[in-house]
Amino acid sequence: MKFNRERFFFFRSEEQAKAEVFGAQSPLIPDSKIKLLKILAIASYVLMLVMQIRNVIVFQGEPVSDAVRYVAGGLAHAANGTWYPTAQDFTNLGGVAGNGYVNYLALLLRITDNLKIIYVAGIFLVQIILFATVYIAKKVSGSQTAAYLTAIYFCLFGTYWSEICIARTELFFTALAMLALALAVRSSKISVIVSGALLAYAQWARPLAPAFIVAIIWLFMCRGEKLKTYVKFAAGFVSVVALLTAFTYFNSGEAVFQPTIADGNFLMGANEDADGSYNSTVFLEGKAGYLTPEQKAELSYDEINEIYRSAAIEWIKENPVDYLKLIPKKVFYFLATETYSGDIYFNNKIFTSGKNYLVSLVNIINGTGERALEFGDVVIVYTQGFYMFVMLLFFAGVIHSMKKGYWRSMSFLYGIYLIGIAASIYTVGGARYHFPYLSVVIITAAMFTDAVFVRRKTKSKILK
Predict the structure, then answer these.
(1) Is residue 7 situated within a structural domain?
(2) Which of 152, 308, 407, 440 is least enclosed by beta carbons within 10 angstroms?
(3) Is 1 within the bounds of a domain?
(4) In terms of Cα–Cα distance, which of 95, 101, 98 is closest to 305?
(5) 400 Cβ partners below 8 Å, 6+ apart?
(6) Could you report the per-residue pLDDT of 41-64, keeping only the tens digit for each?
(7) What is the DSSP string of 71-136?
(8) Is the entire prediction scored with pTM above 0.85?
(9) Domains held by the chain: number
């Protein structure tokens, strides 16, 4: 009996549905419109580069928040000629974090200890994300104009202008993860292996790779890939995980792969002080997550994780309703704002991601603030407004893909975003946590714009 792919939900082709929505490029879209989109894409790209170079030159601030730890580790290992983590690193701040990223910084800082090199390298990381995002948009839609629109939306996203000067793991992780996703979409013999290997290193830097792994496996299922494709992807991933674990063991005596105190985030999202955001008061003295310096010195990272995990689970059992009430708050914090990278416009002396800044910004605009409106405020207002505009297109695009019947081709991207939200619900809500998934939003928004505003009107004119 012959296997009929078209009878099975996972394997049905959506090419006809996509052809009806996006159509062929030449007969449906005038050359003038295609050229205009191309010019806008180039102009947007130039604007992004100009803003990025401007920010690298102007920014004079010191690292803050998580970046303090990563940069300090990179500088120390660069100066000592060592790699992260050593045995000593496991005793600092309760364990290791950002393993792959700290080694990336150590490599850069071996060239020069001027932190500007991190920011310049950040520009190149953004180019990788841009290339991967545009490539995926082109492959999924089959539309060159959708690719141009993706580039336009991406380059006009103010976050990519400023994130380069924030030495956190998001940018580095996203570059690796999106490149891995693009290689999986390409699905050649070698690209699938490299895709798995890149995701393994991305996981070493920031433990968010499972969202992309699940999405890639789903992509393979929807395309009806043979077993050997899964094996190649798994081989690339597992081999790099094994190599990095072995490296850590021989370098430090600890056979670990990921950050060691992950359950601290779980506890932050499940305690009496939790408000859905990145609220770390649970670790203060007298709270459930407080550990004395002596305890931190004596306990292993597994024991500390167990303490945090047990405290969170116990609180959830005792307060199930309060825990459920936190879920919409976490989702709100995950989705609502796009101001988290604006600190760099104030040399990291004003924190732009919280409620206090937003309230002060409203007062400044109303003329009742304690300072005058600055260039950074204007860029942040623009970035937030543009984010909300693209998010509206994103939600409309999801609905449109379901209505027109090409949603299955997009489902691996939607899956990444949904898993990102789920991870935030499990831990804490924070706007910067959605950074790795912005490409999903941009691709969906661009395809919706292409289908509804670029092509539909053109078709109607041709019919007349």
Answers:
(1) no
(2) 407
(3) no
(4) 95
(5) 448, 451, 452
(6) 999 999 999 999 999 999 999 999
(7) HHHHHHHHHHT--S--GGGGGSTTS---HHHHHHHHHHHHH-S-THHHHHHHHHHHHHHHHHHHHH
(8) yes
(9) 1
